[in-house]
Amino acid sequence: MGWAIALHGGAGAIPVDLPPERLEPREAALRRILQIGVSALNARCSPLDVVELVVRELENCPHFNAGKGSVLTTNGTVEMEACIMDGNSKRCGAVSGVSTVVNPISLARQVMEKTPHIYLAFDGAEAFAREQGLETIDESHFITTENIERLKQAKEANRVQQDYTPPFKPEDKKETPVPDGDSKLGTVGCVAVDSLGNLAAATSTGGLVNKMVGRIGDTPIIGAGTYANKFCAISATGIGEAIIRETVARDVAAVMEYKGLGLKEAADYIVHQVSPKGTTGLVAVSSTGEVAMPFNTTGMFRACATEDGFTEVATWAI
Amino acid sequence: MAGWAIAVHGGAGVDPNLPADRQEEAKQLLTRCLNLGIDALRSSLSAIDVVELVVRELETDPLFNSGRGSALTENGTVEMEASIMDGSGRRCGAVSGLTTVKNPISLARLVMDKSPHSYLAFSGAEKFAKQMGVETVENDYFITQDNLEMLKLAKEADSIVFDYRIPQVGYESCGTGVQSPIHMNGLPISIYAPETVGCVVVDSEGRCAAATSTGGLLNKRMGRIGDSPLIGAGTYAGELCGVSCTGEGEAIIRGTLAREVGAVMEYKGLGLQEAVDFVIKERLDEGKAGLIAVSNTGEVAYGFNCVGMFRGCATENGFMEVGIWE
Known about the structure:
The complex is a heterodimer of chains A (318) and B (326).
Chain A: E1 4-12, H1 20-42, H2 47-60, E2 80-86, E3 92-98, H3 104-114, E4 119-121, H4 122-131, H5 145-164, E5 188-193, E6 199-205, E7 226-228, E8 232-238, H6 240-245, H7 248-259, H8 263-274, E9 280-286, E10 291-292, E11 299-306, E12 311-314
Parallel strand pairs in A: 3-4
Antiparallel strand pairs in A: 1-5, 1-11, 2-3, 2-6, 5-6, 7-8, 8-9, 9-10, 11-12
Helix pairs in contact in A: 1-2, 2-3, 7-8
Chain B: E1 5-12, H1 20-42, H2 47-60, E2 80-86, E3 91-98, H3 104-114, E4 119-121, H4 122-132, H5 145-158, E5 183-184, E6 187-188, E7 197-202, E8 208-214, E9 224-225, E10 235-237, E11 241-247, H6 249-254, H7 257-268, H8 272-282, E12 289-295, E13 300-304, E14 309-315, E15 320-323
Parallel strand pairs in B: 3-4
Antiparallel strand pairs in B: 1-7, 1-14, 2-3, 2-8, 5-6, 7-8, 10-11, 11-12, 12-13, 14-15
Helix pairs in contact in B: 1-2, 2-3, 7-8
């Protein structure tokens, strides 16, 4: 059995007529970053190192909603979150409300390795980053013109909604519809397994466009957006509130363990039978080297490779 | 039709040398809260309303580690967190990093009912609290003399315990007069503050709900989030059950403990007590924790693998029990 790796750049209502100038840079980035992960696995780096490395690249790429290129809060600021988990030990680290740390996934890893805690947020996370000497930068580094535009459109859509709909009802708990379809991007993430069956998962995000300041999504919640144990590693993306409720990442692994399903079956079951349509996508690898990348949204930016030479980079259903 | 059932907890991990009068105080509070919940259930309040009501009471009373009486951060302040989940529909709400909100569980409920999100934290959560007009107070309202003392002892113990995972000898000099080598979350049990309060309910319609609230780990780093506000870890409610956990937060998170009870019921077909026992035995590794749970068929169960858990439970057919030890 060889290694396997899968990564995503977000699931959502990615319109099938997305113009080439928006599609190509993303697919090119996925291809490039996949190769980085593949080289690391070939060099026998641990899956934990590989997923961190890959997610750092995705964070640095401005085309995805993580690190640089994060979507903006309702105040026009950036509040990033990230999470990493090691399958064997089930050790994990998570951060939320990070605004100046260049690579939130590395901060999450530091929380896992350098503190007795799992999860640090906001001022506490920022202070810890400085203690650890992680690279920090002015918040403006993360903000792109695309995202300023997305925020503007989201606010306009909100205004329209307020004119025509009654006050917020619990059933309305879904995203504000935004004219620019590809702005519904949830996250970036990576899962990897080496030839010994060691698994790891990592996820990172800027969150939801126009989110309330202080809103936390599924990404840093172990069992929701990120999970790894000795059976599989999962990174999910989509509408955070739905992923939290369905404990998506944990449930894929639970269904494998308790019902004896294989990875693809388990991932398909959770994404297509359990999660509401239009809310969820994920990438997954198993301890036996299987890969699955199901999604119930229009599209999901994704890529995967296995040691026997199979690779795939795609956005919509094949 | 199965009847209602309710369980409450005031934290897992109790000093075996806890003085008798403190034990009595705790049992009285648990009894009072249980009775509040029972009255509400008899008045046909829904499960989600009952868990909120009961946890508010636990937060308001300074005895346990939530709301007033919360354990203190390393800076001597209070940062509270809570989560609530409605099994029918599995809607949920959570908050972290609260410093002025008198009843965190109610803010969590408002996040669930009145915001487009599921989880708000720190200044964003405080801002939302103002928008919602919930009762707020100065941070020192939550701080008790007891907890100031505990913080002092924890800091002393910290300077002695180098690797928090390895029990050390020599901590007698930290002034607690501890004889027992039991540790939880890196602290000798005599100064460890059990971490949470919680309530789970199934009402007479078979709807489950769960709520958990805490001040978190004593002497915690600012910004540290534990299991209590994390859906699937400290709190979970679905069609089949409602669960609230307490104990070593990191172990509960890694074990996705609350969801696990529901998952083994759903995917392995285990009954409630079986599920609780399985999860406590198999999903905690070296972690120490406890949980309370109810099922949609009116059962109630609890389990813990540490020394003691403050708890109480009752069912419609008249069963009632309040306890601390095994």
